[in-house]
Amino acid sequence: MDKLKGKGKEAVGKLTGDHRKEAEGKTDQAKGRAKDAVDEAGDKVKGVKDSLGGDDDR
To answer: Helices 2-16 & 19-51, crossing angle to 10 degrees?
Structure first.
């Protein structure tokens, strides 16, 4: 969601010449990419745990 919101802000900033809004958009996009990377890493860790047979929730 952050990436989509960021793209919108960046586009509005470019159209209006608002450099601050454009920068906020780029920041929101980076935040969205970071969240995606964390989610992906968590999924990989869960996959490794499951493949090792450690899928019981202790």
So the answer is: 160
